[in-house]
Amino acid sequence: MTFPVVGMVGGGQLARMTHESGIPLGIKFKLLSDTPQDSAAQVVGDVVIGDYRDLDTLRDFARGCDVITFDHEHVPIEHLRALEADGIPVRPGRDALVHAQDKGVMRAKLDEIGAPCPRHRIVGDPQDAAAFAAEGDGFPIVLKTVRGGYDGKGVWVIGSAEDPALAQPFRAGVPVLAEEKVDFVRELAANVVRSPHGQAVAYPVVESRQVDGVCDTVIAPAPDLAEELALRAEELALRIAKELGVVGHLAVELFETADGRILVNELAMRPHNSGHWTQDGAITSQFANHVRAVLDLPLGDPRPRARWTVMANVLGGDYPDMYSAYLHCMARDPQLKIHMYGKDVKPGRKVGHVNTYGDDLDDVLERARHAAGYLRGTITE
Amino acid sequence: MTFPVVGMVGGGQLARMTHESGIPLGIKFKLLSDTPQDSAAQVVGDVVIGDYRDLDTLRDFARGCDVITFDHEHVPIEHLRALEADGIPVRPGRDALVHAQDKGVMRAKLDEIGAPCPRHRIVGDPQDAAAFAAEGDGFPIVLKTVRGGYDGKGVWVIGSAEDPALAQPFRAGVPVLAEEKVDFVRELAANVVRSPHGQAVAYPVVESRQVDGVCDTVIAPAPDLAEELALRAEELALRIAKELGVVGHLAVELFETADGRILVNELAMRPHNSGHWTQDGAITSQFANHVRAVLDLPLGDPRPRARWTVMANVLGGDYPDMYSAYLHCMARDPQLKIHMYGKDVKPGRKVGHVNTYGDDLDDVLERARHAAGYLRGTITE
Question: What does the subunit section of this Swiss-Prot or TrEMBL entry state (chains A, B) (predicted)?
Answer without folding.
Answer: Homodimer.
